[in-house]
Amino acid sequence: SSLRFQPNPQYRPDLKLTDAEHALHYNNFYELGTDKSDPYRNADRLITDNWQVRIEGECAKPQTFDMDDLLAIEQEERIYRFRCVEGWSMVVPWIGFPLSKLLNKVEPTSKAKYVEFISILDRKNLPGQRFNILDWPYREGLRIDEAMHPLTLMATGLYGEALQNQSGAPLRLIVPWKYGFKSSKSIVTIRLVEKQPISSWMQATPSEYGFYSNVNPQVPHRRWSQAKERPLGSFFKKKTLMFNGYADEVASLYSGMDLRRYF
Amino acid sequence: MPLAAKLFIFSLVCALPGIDLGWKLLQDNLGANPVETLEHTTGDWTIYFLLLTLSISPVQQLFVPKWPIPMHLIRRILGLSAFVYALLHLAVYFIFDMGLDIDAAVEDIATRPFIMIGMTALTLLIPLAITSTQGWQKRLKRRWQQLHKLIYPITFLGILHYALLVKADLFMPLLYLLLFGILMLLRQFKLPRLR
């Protein structure tokens, strides 16, 4: 189905778009299976009818939104780089709106220091949730200033159309300067909290996945280098950029922090 | 059918996964991450062929006493296939992951345990491949048997190499480990013929 949106010329890097064919058939979405081809293959196992998102926690007006409420927010298209922690990358046109617009509706209080994102839990239908590969439901988190940053997007579409299930329909997060797993898919709850949340990956392997997970070519993963990345569809690697090329916009969020320690 | 023809056909069958991969490579039909496809497929087939090599004796003892090709020749072709797929696996890694940069490869091998383990397994395969001929078998006599027992640690290291690179889903490496364990256990007993 098509979406009404405006291209945002501010976020159009001079980069070649990844083939939609690649971006829509090669996905990490463990709820639908751990192989890269599983999410597309099992896409119909994700049921998105009557989707609602609950925003709760440290805010004056906790609320539940349905997709019509969210699609009433002005939708824009932004072309972002996307870098997976595994070392592949893509450049894709997301459609959506800044998360800050949504969070402002619930009026976060001064206690809202972090934001926790909770994805769908449906053990009956989602093949990946029959096994505890991760502690389901999938949980991720951001610091409140990261969540309110103008680059942080709630995506509802991709390549001009509503998100397909394998891409995290109907609503997902996009944080372009962090490794892809920070960009939660199929979100059902957003919780404003005072303490730093523990994400599913932090819980699974704390030595390998930190809370920040900013793209950083100088800090290797425990088992592989992060200095380079392979764009989808290409054979050779290219250099990974600090904060995935968004250093001008986001480096100030982390000034004075030891990024090796807070990886 | 003469033995030479049988050997040729069997070798061709072992080469099929590689031929398929080469064909898809030429057609640019390896998916979104072609290098990963090449790397994972050659790695998977290395482990399959190692496990197949180890299965020949127990399968013979348990189920199929007589083979159309002498067992030692089947084992040789399976073992050499494992070696060839491992070499292709290394070539893909060196060409596309390391960009033909020897310094980068040396550093990668030295700093990443799973790469080091994989390299160790491949290095240990080299003497087995070289001495796989009948000439070497005769020359080394009883030592040949001892040398070729290296296939056990090699297979284990290959599976370990795979397990250490997986992010969260250990199902496949654990399945391989289980198969390896069963094959090792079968080796401990003098098996009765079931047939």
From TrEMBL, chain B:
Its main location: membrane. HAMAP family: MsrQ (MF_01207). This is Protein-methionine-sulfoxide reductase heme-binding subunit MsrQ. Pfam families: Ferric_reduct. It is a multi-pass membrane protein. Heterodimer of a catalytic subunit (MsrP) and a heme-binding subunit (MsrQ). Residues 43-158 form the Ferric oxidoreductase domain. The chain crosses the membrane at residues 46-65, 77-96, 116-135, 147-164, 170-186. InterPro entries: Fe3_Rdtase_TM_dom (IPR013130), MsrQ-like (IPR022837). Belongs to the MsrQ family. One of its GO terms (molecular function) is FMN binding. It is found in: Cell membrane; Membrane. Binds 1 heme b (iron(II)-protoporphyrin IX) group per subunit. Binds 1 FMN per subunit. It comes from Thiomicrorhabdus xiamenensis.
